Amino acid sequence: MGRLLPQGGPDVHTLQYDQAHFAMRASAHNGLERFGDRLVACSGHLLNVEGRPLSVHDVAEGYGRQGVQFFDGLDGHYSIAIWDASLRTLVLARDPFGVMPLVFAQGDTWTAFASHYKALLALPQISAEPDLLAINTFLYNGWAPPGRTFFKDLRPVLPGSVVVIGANEPKIIRTKPRACDYEIPRKPVTPDHVLEAVERSVNAYAHDTTAKYGVSLSGGVDSALIAALLHKRLPRTQLCSFTVGHGESDSDIIGARQTSSILGISHREVIVRPKDLIELLPKTVWCLEDPGGYDEFPQLYALARGAAGKVDMMFSGNMCDTLFAGMPAHRRLWLGHHVPGAKKILNELRSAELSGTLPAYWPARAVHYAIKGRHPLPAPCSAGPNQNRLATEEMAFADEDSPLFRMLGSALASWDNRMGAQQVLVAEFGLRSAMPYASKHLIDLALRIPDRQKVGPTQVKVILRKAAELILPRAITHRKKYIQQFRYDSEMADVMDHLYSRLFVPSRPAQPSVVNPAEVERLLRRGKRPYKPLEIRWLWNAITAEIWTQQFVDRRDEFLGDGSGDIGPTSI
């Protein structure tokens, strides 16, 4: 298992006490120690409530005094394992948004855990049977559902949770902040309060005066605010920004270049073309394990590779959209709540998108005609015979008081693995990840902001933009949000066709099939026209699911080997 852990130093540090065996790759930012009758392993960036760093010894002492309640006051990005021999209990804990990955599996007389499930695949008692229902959810929605992976036997520790494993069934304890503890917010929050909270979080991750810091800078306000606060705190020589995009016309490239110029910080650009996906996709899926997301993840892999050796820690603006309501889903929910008749139309459009049919309700069909054309699109390919999927209905909160508050509470209770995906990409190149918006005190603040301060008739993230205006010009704070993606032109279509032809080949050795090749073929374009965005999305999911199958299912025997050779990503 230690051999298969992908990050850290070359040496594997092991400890055994009582019935517990712990192993960790040596790293300055990991810790593995024995304290009395406990083994404690920590990974990530641990902070106390004041934002000061904590060590593995601090964690052991805190748990010894408070038990699992200790995790209520723990902040930062972390995954923690504690074997408590006095209670014969294993405790697994993870930060609120799952920035640090942590996965476990169980049998009748054993429990195994790891930061990456590559290590768990070294155990022959763990089945490599795919979870077809979880994979089907991914094919429709782009992510495996919360609490599941692509393997039936492997489960992630839910973000913001502690799993207590003893003689009985595992007990899951939610850590603070818990949305169910909050009342619907009514009192407005000031922009100064928001800025102060974000600055406090940024400073907590930038305490090392000898480190070099990078910012993954998009064209939006989220990362620009972090860059401005880091520029305020750090000497110019310690800070550099990085942007990735498809070329000179990319909105993120243009916006980030303007932001870095205004702030006066060193800036680097990484250009990724569609043809680069042939090399990048297998490596990205290998890092992510369960694939997820779309264009942004191979691009972020390339960005992290470009930043390697130039900085020690990479900051990003992830989670800002979730906390301050900046996603298209938040705009749709606001419309469904405030505009008469909009909820039914939006529900019909979403259903049509998932099923590949035309809406039945004539106003929704008219919108579909205007946006997507007069022909239904093919539905995603199925993973095996079970067509069911676990899809979240975003409009479920539209009829409730404060729907954005309800939506945030739902996200906190059932967050998936996308933040862990961000972290493993930068860690692949020896970088540390910092996502200041994922801090507990910012989650607490977001749960106290009224809906009207988040989304308005013409703008999302209203209060966050007002806070950013205190230190950034309106040219940045009111810049339109863009999705990080390639141009879906003929070049991109040719690459998708090439990936299909290389992966779904009749000559492939007989192996258990996860994705139905006949249904993938049904998605392919006819002629030379470019693919529509929705067609790209569904093909992308089918292709990455097949890459996953070939890397993890078809090669299972390699994970069970004796360690004589390295295991890495396949190539296309």
From TrEMBL:
It catalyses: L-aspartate + L-glutamine + ATP + H2O = L-asparagine + L-glutamate + AMP + diphosphate + H(+). Gene3D superfamilies: Glutamine Phosphoribosylpyrophosphate, subunit 1, domain 1 (3.60.20.10), HUPs (3.40.50.620). CDD domains: Asn_synthase_B_C. Keywords: ATP-binding, Nucleotide-binding. The keyword Nucleotide-binding applies. The keyword Ribonucleoprotein does not apply. Residues 1-168 form the Glutamine amidotransferase type-2 domain. Pathway: Amino-acid biosynthesis; L-asparagine biosynthesis; L-asparagine from L-aspartate (L-Gln route): step 1/1. InterPro entries: Asn_synth_AEB, Asn_synthase, ASN_synthetase/amidase, GATase_2_dom, Ntn_hydrolases_N, Rossmann-like_a/b/a_fold. It is an enzyme of class 6 (ligase). Its EC number is 6.3.5.4. Belongs to the asparagine synthetase family. This is asparagine synthase (glutamine-hydrolyzing). It comes from Bradyrhizobium brasilense.
